[in-house]
Amino acid sequence: MTNFSSTELNVPLLVVEADPAVRSRLAMQLGEHAIPVETLMGVEERYGSAPFLLVLGPTCARSGDLGGAEPLLARRPDLGSILIAEDLSTDLFQRAIRSGVRDVLGAPVDTGQLNEAVSRVASTLVVTRPSSSGGPSTEAGGEGQGRVITVFSTKGGAGKSVMATNLGVLLAQRTEGTVALVDADLQFGDVAVMLKLAPQHTIVDAVGSFDRLDVGFLETLLSTHPPTGLKVLPAPLEPAFADQIGADQMTKIVRLLRSFCDFVVIDTPAYFNEVVLGLIEESDDVILVAGMDIPNIKNVKIGLQTLRLLNTPMSKIHLILNRANSKVKLEVSEVERTLQVKAEALIPSDVVVPQSVNKGMPVVLDSPKSPIAKSLEQVADLFAPAVEPQAKKRGWR
Ligand SMILES: Nc1ncnc2c1ncn2[C@@H]1O[C@H](COP(=O)(O)OP(=O)(O)OP(=O)(O)O)[C@@H](O)[C@H]1O
Ligand SMILES: [Mg+2]
Predict the structure, then answer these.
(1) CA of 161 to the centre of ligand 2 (A)
(2) Does the beta carbon of 292 lie inside 6 Å of ligand 1?
(3) Could you point out which of 83, 181, 230, 252 has its C-alpha 20 to 30 Å from the C-alpha of 383?
(4) pLDDT averaged over every residue in the chain
(5) What CA–CA distance (Å, rounded) separates 14 from 283?
């Protein structure tokens, strides 16, 4: 990744750090446009009322008022700032975000990550500046409404997360715009592991600063899947945090995401709860994953009955049968008759799936020529057409 150039934005980029060695390393990572300063003293006078961008070093993170940034940001909500902290605790993260810091990164920070964060915060500065309201930059329910696809099953281990991650990466490859994947399996979500991501932030950070949550802030919490550019909002790192996320909060997060994404794919736990019901209601499509065994079919039948009772339009439900091989001695037609729904795709069972899961590489990328990858592509065809190989989105932007 190239270093971010603040001249592209016409705002100064300041690196604030008292330790000279750390200061020059950060400035070097950010490129020639970074202006290293020891403290924030005199900075406001130097730049007047014009906006600027601050990268606050680990010494600021250790000080009581974030090295003077707290009072400055309280006066100047138009400034963009990123904090780099050695001990990145949830407490520090929340304090920083409440003070107006737009992103917090762990030290030592990776050059790519740092420049990506600067670029992201810089772009929100440009977006929010004309309105200068200080409030959320984009509200849900506006013009841009991406398609929300929830992957659900009433049986654990049916293949929801495999389906959600593969669908997410395929849509990211097929779409020019942004595709987000939300892990709403709040207790035991494993989307980040399946994509080999080591996220800096999770959905807990979004909910922890809920009153400040807007598109710009939410974007800073998303992790990027480098091979495809898919944007991921991971589940909490510990099951105990799951309780902090309510149905209304989850719905607001999805509404914010769909306001700037073309697709929002959501992975869920294997049971109905308030969060899942809210998500199903918010979704344009619900992929119902069923494994090819009697307990799966029994539970999916109950799940379908529940959805009907909840007045979920059957037109938005897509039944996908997983592990649908001839060897399992259960006929697809028999399953469809039992469920009274026609399957829209059949996914075979293949050892390349657990192999790809263990590598943290979705099977459509790991074994793109395998029959299972082809069948997963058919699922993506339901939502976005395949693109010619030469026209495919190469990397992420
Ligand atoms: N078509 C398939 N062929 C072979 N293995 C599969 C297939 N689909 C899923 N698996 C394996 O089954 C396991 C469960 O899949 P996955 O985690 O996607 O299910 P889940 O529905 O998300 O489970 P949970 O309810 O625990 O979240 C994984 O280890 C995966 O490798
Ligand atoms: Mg799962």
Answers:
(1) 4
(2) no
(3) 252
(4) 87
(5) 42
